[in-house]
Amino acid sequence: MFCIMFVMPTLAVCENLAGSNSRSFAMSTHLTLGELFAASVAERGEHSFVVASAESVSYSDFAERAARVAGGLSAHGVEPGDRVAVMLPNSLEWLECFFAAAHLGAVAVPINPTYKYDEVDRILADSEAVVLVTDTEHAAMAEGLFEERLTVRRVFLTGGSDIDSLDCFDQLRDSPKAPRVEAAADTPLSLTYTSGTSGNPRGVLLSSSNYAYAAQTVAGTVGLHTDDRLMCALPFCHVASQVLGPLGALAAGATLLVPGAQPLQKLVRAVESSQATALAAVPNFFERLTRAEGLDDADLDGLRLAVATGAPISPEAHSAFEDRFELPLITSYGLTEACGVSTINVDGPDGRRLGSVGRPLSGQELQVVDDDDLQRRTGAAGELVLRGPNVMLGYLDEDAATADALRSGWLHTGDIGFVDDDGFVHLVGRKKELIVRGGDHVYPREVEDVLRRHPAVAEAAVIGVADQAQGEEVAAFIVVEPGHTLSAGEAISFCRDHLANYKCPGIVEFRDALPMTPTGRVRKAFLAQIYVS
């Protein structure tokens, strides 16, 4: 196979992107997260690293806390390579567990705290985690899991425990400090399970150097300052949230603000009162913020950065946010298998491109290939493949799936997109979501983007459903804006004004809400199951 490598032009992280208050990054693809953490503590010691639940913790004090939690885990038998499951909401305790695992050379297994018993049990079984840390809200579930899942030797509850078989997290915090294990760059640091929008989650192994590279590169590219106060409203159980939130703040020497789960209005007030200068959230948050009433007096002048990740955002919603708040919105694209972030649409000397997901990070290579893995021409759609220091080690215990995903050194994302003449990447849809209707190819995102332009449409999702005559039919599921009305015929007619007839939905159904992942992506596999049933 003859394939020309296409390396995107990007701004080097070592350049002074963020002004006089940016840190100087000595970029190395062999740097570990532990080394990055130690360097940040040495340089920023007494500076506030994290503010959570009205408690401010300096870099030095946080390092002490993480070392003590690591000591407690070690005292309970956790060794390098062991897996430590963390099922907590965004909190100081979550951060302490993650960094404590890295301190020991253990592997953190973040679990979404909204998961139900069977989902958590499946992850504990697959990961063979030896410890589970969760909160009192999940005490009953944890007790059942501890009894059933024999690999789990200890369960620790934040907030205390009145269940004899479960331990209190404060025991870990009160332990003597453990010495830091000098882990190699390719040592697994996290085992993160994919969100499973198209099937059962897989365990993705990411290395210490994957994280260190991603944290430094992302912090430099978005332009975080040492005096920034970054509010992260993204769930820490997701890799992109870790990189854009706590690890990005760490790399920049900034302060991380952890707001906890709050309604939109309260979160906006928290941005004001905390004097946040940067905000990271899912695209849906910024879309709802743009439409929200009762926030005309909101003072967001202190914000200089807003970052959206986890799902696409339409150009119309993107522009509407910037017009209302006069604040540039940075968007990104990535996947768990590439440490969460691979491209960023950030303003630079040659501008940016609304509707695109930006350009690849420095050191990240991207190609667009056809079904035979041959490179496509500029502007032609195909599968996006990636290569670089952020690409995963592989899937846990799934050699065949790893080999299929990492072919010839390139990570096959399953995402369909194209690159324009200026090097900006544009997403079209998912390869597995492609609808073949009577031999014609329909990309759901193209139809969704058109539907969202209708003033009565709050949200839309398009999938392919089995059809006897055409093989597949285009089915649209629509959430109508409050105060508006819309019929199926009107939705189809609107699509016909903007799309070829074969791309227009043949089926339209209305829903009060769409099933979503915590990062704002529609759970299309679940939506298809609902439709079939």
Describe this protein's structure.
The strands form six sheets. The protein has a nine-stranded mixed sheet with strand order 2-1-11-10-12-13-14-15-16, sandwiched between helices. A five-stranded parallel sheet has the order 4-3-5-6-7, with helices on both faces. Strands 17, 18, 20, 21 and 22 form a five-stranded antiparallel sheet that branches. The model is unreliable at 1-20 (pLDDT under 50). The chain is an alpha/beta fold and 533 residues long. The longest helix has 17 residues, at 59-75. It has two domains: 33-419, Rossmann fold; 434-532, 2-Layer Sandwich (GMP Synthetase, Chain A, domain 3). Helix 11 (283-291) packs across helix 12 (315-325). A hairpin with a 5-residue loop joins strand 21 (410-419) and strand 22. It is 30% helix and 24% strand. InterPro entries: AMP-bd_C, AMP-bd_C_sf, AMP-binding_CS, AMP-dep_synth/lig_dom, ANL_N_sf, ATP-dep_AMP-bd_enzyme. Residues 38-396 form the AMP-dependent synthetase/ligase domain. Keywords: Ligase.
List the helices and strands and how they pair.
Elements: H1 33-44, E1 48-52, E2 55-58, H2 59-75, E3 83-86, H3 92-104, E4 107-110, H4 117-127, E5 131-135, H5 139-148, E6 154-158, E7 167-168, H6 170-173, E8 188-193, E9 203-207, H7 208-222, E10 229-232, H8 239-244, H9 246-252, E11 255-258, H10 264-273, E12 278-281, H11 283-291, E13 305-308, H12 315-325, E14 329-333, E15 343-345, E16 359-360, E17 365-369, E18 382-387, E19 394-395, H13 399-405, E20 406-407, E21 410-419, E22 425-430, E23 435-437, E24 440-442, H14 444-452, E25 457-467, E26 471-480, H15 488-498, E27 507-510, H16 524-532
Parallel strand pairs: 1-11, 3-4, 3-5, 5-6, 6-7, 10-11, 10-12, 12-13, 13-14, 26-27
Antiparallel strand pairs: 1-2, 8-9, 9-19, 14-15, 15-16, 17-18, 18-21, 20-21, 21-22, 23-24, 25-26
